[in-house]
Automatic annotation (TrEMBL), chain A:
Residues 56-165 form the STAS domain. It comes from Streptomyces pyxinicus. CDD domains: STAS_anti-anti-sigma_factors (cd07043). It holds the Pfam family STAS. SUPFAM superfamilies: SpoIIaa-like. It comes from the Bacteria. Residues 1-62 are annotated as: Disordered. Residues 1-10 have a biased composition (Polar residues). Residues 27-39, 47-59 have a biased composition (Low complexity). Gene3D superfamilies: STAS domain (3.30.750.24). This is Anti-sigma factor antagonist. Belongs to the anti-sigma-factor antagonist family.
From TrEMBL, chain B:
Residues 287-441 form the GAF domain. Keywords: Coiled coil, Hydrolase. It comes from Streptomyces pyxinicus. This is SpoIIE family protein phosphatase. Gene3D superfamilies: 3.30.450.40, Histidine kinase-like ATPase, C-terminal domain, PPM-type phosphatase domain.
């Protein structure tokens, strides 16, 4: 491992995964019309378009022939763009082996699966490798349900993913 | 005279060549004519014969362009001055076709003759050694004033005159060819005849047996003269060509300008038409989704952009506003993975409605690239150099903004800006119209909801109802269901069906329903209610056969007392699953006069379910009603769950989305433990990606509160997929509701898009496909149903 870098889409906000209003208030039974429901922008803020909701913390470690990207946070419809943006930079594209460490990911949805398959296919077509490691039970389950365990290479440990490194 | 030739420039001549027209005598004619002269005179045995040949040559080979010789007369004069000192000059004159040379006297009376004689003398006096001595010349002599010896009347053409080609021969001798013209010769003819004069001299010298040196000198002079003419004309030609070229370029330029202007005018006309069309289309468009798409398509077309986007604010039901966007010229997938634009220096003027931003190269703009982390366009963004953004403002309120991009620089002109600004103001008005319309429509729908109220909830039972108009009969039908809490704590249950279709049946239904409610509140027994209704049908709608079930559920919710008028029997499901149709006592339909309707009773045990329905549920073209009832019994006997989900799945199974008749259902469930009521949590979200984690979090917390954390993994995944699907495809405000009912938890995602759920049409390999695969694999049951102004996607999970 030679270099460290962290990436987030919104600079400082990324480490503060709370600015999404709705969850902050307790859900109240039979109160569907709760004012301020949803991550709404106050009308007076006619220019503020900051995205809300949790974001991923991404930590990249580069070796001479590989990169390991540790993901922290849920990978879903909301955060997948951030992950794809990080993993499809020219530097990341060109690295011969890319491993996603999902030890800190307790949730993935079909958008995440789509991203994994997309990354795998693109890298495979370019003669480059891609794999996942550190699968949590919930993540492993949906990979199994969708039969993707036979498509995307999975490594039980990071050491297995990077033999001899 | 030669006959007129189709080519006015070259008339046929006896020897088969063509006559050179003096009117168009140029360099080429000069060369060709000189060559022909040499051939014509070559081999003449004497000077006289040569002179004769020269005369014939000029007579025959030069035309006026209209088939006649160019010359009125041709004379060849040979002059000999034996002694230079003497004044006398011996002249021999030759005419074409004359018998032979004859001595000629020119008395010099006339100015022309005077001048000719003077030149002949000078030529005869010249010696080849003197470089300053006169050489061959071409003279233009003024017209004769009429000659006594003229063979024919002189032409009256005032332009005539005499062209003289002459020059020295051997020392003491000279020659002249006098050509009396018919018409005014072109001004430059004399110049082109210069080499011909030299040619004549050379021919005469040859025939005279002159010394090679003299011939050589004459030949050199001929060449020099020809060269000089050619050189002069080449320069002239070059100048002319250059002039022509520049004139041509000028012409092309002005033609291009004309074409350009024409094109612009046509474009302008097309633009005006387009703007008008856009304006009227937008003004007529009240559906917001269609409106904004029209607007962005038109504006993108007018701007010549590679792609365009329109961002617009939408006011949610609870007053919150949020931002949506539509695209033109590019698929939504190109932007799906980027967060919404932020309030950067580039975007601010548009989102705040401060003014238009137009840039030939936005990446070179001082406002560009100041915001972390992208510092400009995010990676993978379509390339944009030319940038144009126009806010849409109505009376000071920013309603939205147009954004256009092109990968080439300097694509957007001031004109594009004006056009898009035009579309923007039309869009502003149209958006305002659409909003007004939406408010009015919502008010109308609210009124309708009051007329057809939702059934109230009552203690001790869970109930739900459905009303689905026939596929071909949208909105109005004669079926109804009702649930009426009675003053003493009992509950009346009603299902009815007025035969007939459309508004008439619906109107009768409305009256019967109202009357039924009144009778119910009077506390009439079921048989009495039906009796009254039957009389009423006879009164208000004779012939409108109506069927009905009227049942009263006691305060304890344990017993039913009911009467039936020709209606399909309610189905009762025992807690253990046995199904019985309550068909012991069925009276005749309503509308057949005053009748006594029989009553029957049934027990409703805890855990039992009761379904009242109209024939639309079980009757279907191509399927016997008994078969439909058998299917219904099978479904009811099978696994059941949350009542909403039960209803949807039964309707799906029996009608499969193409019911021929209205369907109305009233479905009741008496819970085992009446104190454990259904619990529900609902929340609204705007269609943004952030709604996905927010809804997941809501469901996860709710399950924890209900002590059902073990379902969190499954239900959060289902919530995630269903909300993401609504955000991705419906793009309308959405509602997430999670309900607990008995041993089931039901999750519903409601959106306002009436489009068919895209879940089913996503091609394999897309996220949506995999998403629904996950929902299908995890949920106990799931399905969709259309509702007024939208649809619901639901999924049910067992709690144990």
């Amino acid at each position: 491992m030679t270099a460290n870098s962290s990436s987030s889409p919104h600079g400082p906000q990324a480490s503060d995964p709370t600015p999404h209003g709705p969850q902050a208030s307790d859900p109240t039974p039979h109160a569907p019309q709760a004012p301020g429901a949803g991550p709404a922008r106050p009308p007076e803020d006619s220019g503020g378009l900051l995205p809300t909701g949790p974001t991923l913390t991404l930590l990249s470690r580069r070796g001479p022939r590989h990169a390991v990207v540790s993901v922290d946070g849920p990978i879903d419809y909301h955060t997948t763009p951030q992950l794809l943006g990080h993993l499809t930079t020219p530097e990341m594209r060109d690295v011969p082996l890319l491993v996603l460490d999902l030890s800190e990911v307790d949730f993935c949805d079909s958008s995440a699966l789509g991203a994994f398959v997309d990354l795998y296919r693109r890298r495979h077509a370019d003669g480059r490798r891609f794999g996942l490691t550190g699968l949590q039970p919930q993540v492993r389950r949906i990979l199994e349900l969708t039969r993707l365990t036979t498509v995307v290479p999975l490594y039980a440990t990071l050491e297995q993913a990077l033999p001899g490194v | 005279m030669a006959p007129p030739s189709p080519d006015p420039g070259r008339d046929a001549v006896p020897d088969g060549g063509a006559r050179f027209a003096v009117s168009s005598f140029g360099l080429a004619e000069m060369a060709a004519c000189g060559a022909r002269l040499r051939t014509a005179v070559a081999g003449a045995p004497s000077v006289d014969a040569a002179a004769r040949a020269v005369a014939d040559f000029f007579q025959d080979n030069l035309g006026d362009g209209r088939g006649a010789s160019a010359w009125h007369q041709v004379h060849v004069l040979l002059a000999h001055a034996p002694d230079a000192a003497r004044e006398g000059l011996r002249l021999t004159e030759v005419h074409p076709e004359a018998a032979g040379p004859r001595a000629a006297e020119r008395n010099g009376d006339r100015a022309a003759d005077q001048r000719l004689l003077e030149r002949l003398r000078a030529w005869a006096a010249a010696t080849g050694d003197d470089p300053a001595a006169p050489d061959c010349e071409v003279l233009v002599l003024p017209p004769d004033g009429g000659r006594e010896d003229a063979d024919e009347p002189a032409p009256t053409d005032s332009g005539t005159g005499t062209l003289v080609l002459g020059g020295p021969l051997l020392p003491g001798a000279a020659f002249a060819v006098a050509l009396v013209t018919r018409h005014q010769p072109p001004a430059d003819l004399a110049e082109f005849f210069g080499p011909l004069a030299h040619g004549v001299r050379l021919a005469l010298l040859s025939a005279d047996g002159a010394s090679p040196a003299a011939e050589t000198r004459a030949a050199r002079a001929l060449v020099a003269c020809t060269d000089a003419v050619v050189a002069r004309h080449a320069a002239h030609l070059r100048a002319t060509v250059a002039e022509l070229r520049s004139a041509g370029a000028e012409l092309r330029r002005s033609r291009e300008e004309l074409r350009q202007r024409g094109k612009e005018l046509r474009e302008e006309a097309a633009v005006v038409e387009l703007l008008q069309e856009v304006g009227s289309t937008l003004a007529a468009e009240l559906d917001l989704d269609t409106l904004v798409q029209h607007a962005v398509d038109a504006a993108t077309r007018l701007s010549g952009a590679a792609f365009g986007a329109f961002f617009y604010n939408v006011l949610g039901e609870t007053g919150e506003s949020y931002l949506l966007y539509v695209l033109s010229g590019v698929d939504r997938s190109a932007f799906e993975r980027f967060p919404m634009p932020r309030n950067t220096q580039v975007f601010e003027p548009t989102f705040r409605g401060l003014g238009v931003v137009r840039s030939d190269d936005i990446t070179a703009d001082s406002r560009y690239g100041h915001n972390a982390p992208h510092r400009g366009m995010p990676r993978g963004h379509l390339p944009v150099r030319s940038y144009l953004a126009v806010p849409v403002v109505f009376r000071g309120t920013v309603l939205g903004g147009f954004f256009f991009g092109h990968s080439d620089p300097a694509r957007f002109t001031e004109r594009h800006e004006r056009l898009v600004t035009g579309v923007a103001s039309q869009t502003a008005v149209a958006l305002q119209n659409a909003q007004t319309y939406r408010h009015e429509r919502e008010a109308a729908m609210e009124l309708q909801r009051h007329l057809l109220p939702r059934l109230p909830g009552v203690d001790g039972i869970a109930s739900t109802s459905r009303y689905l108009p026939a596929a071909h009969n949208r909105g109005a039908g004669g079926d109804w269901v009702d649930l009426i809490p009675l003053p003493d704590g009992e509950v009346a249950l009603v299902v009815g069906d007025v035969m007939g279709k459309g508004v008439k049946a619906a109107a009768v239904m409305g009256q019967l329903r109202t009357a039924c409610r009144a009778y119910a509140r009077l506390g009439l027994a079921p048989s009495e209610v039906l009796e009254q209704l039957s009389v009423l049908v006879d009164d208000i709608a004779p012939g409108h056969i109506t069927t009905c079930v009227y049942a009263v559920l006691n305060r304890e919710r344990s017993r039913l007392r009911m009467a039936m008028a020709g209606h399909l029997p309610p189905a009762l499901r025992a807690p253990e699953g046995g199904v019985r149709f309550l068909d012991d006592e069925i009276g005749p339909p309503l509308g057949v006069g005053r009748r006594r309707y029989p009553e029957q009773e049934a027990e409703l045990l805890p855990g039992a379910r009761l379904l009242l329905y109209t024939d639309g549920l079980v009757e279907r073209r191509g399927r016997h009603i008994d078969e439909g009832l058998r299917l219904l019994r099978e479904l009811l006997a099978g696994p059941v769950g949350e009542i909403e989900a039960d209803c949807d799945s039964w309707i799906d199974a029996l009608a499969a989305g193409r019911q021929d008749d209205d369907i109305a259902l009233l479905y009741l469930y008496r819970p085992e433990d009446p104190s454990r009521r259904a619990v529900a949590v609902a929340r609204d979200y705007p269609p943004v990606s952030g709604a996905v984690p927010a809804a997941r979090d809501l469901v996860s917390r709710t399950l924890r509160e209900w002590g059902l954390s073990h379902l969190a993994d499954d239900l959060t995944l289902i919530t995630d997929e269903m909300v993401a699907n609504a955000v991705r495809h419906a793009r309308t405000p959405l509602r997430v509701e999670v309900r607990r009912s008995g041993d089931r938890v039901v999750l519903e995602v409601t959106d306002s898009s009436t489009e068919e759920p895209r879940l089913f049409v996503s091609p394999p390999g897309e996220f949506g496909h995999r998403g629904i695969f996950l929902v299908d694999a995890i949920a106990t049951r799931w399905g969709t149903r259309a509702i007024d102004g939208g649809k619901v996607v639901w999924a049910e999970v067992k709690t144990s």
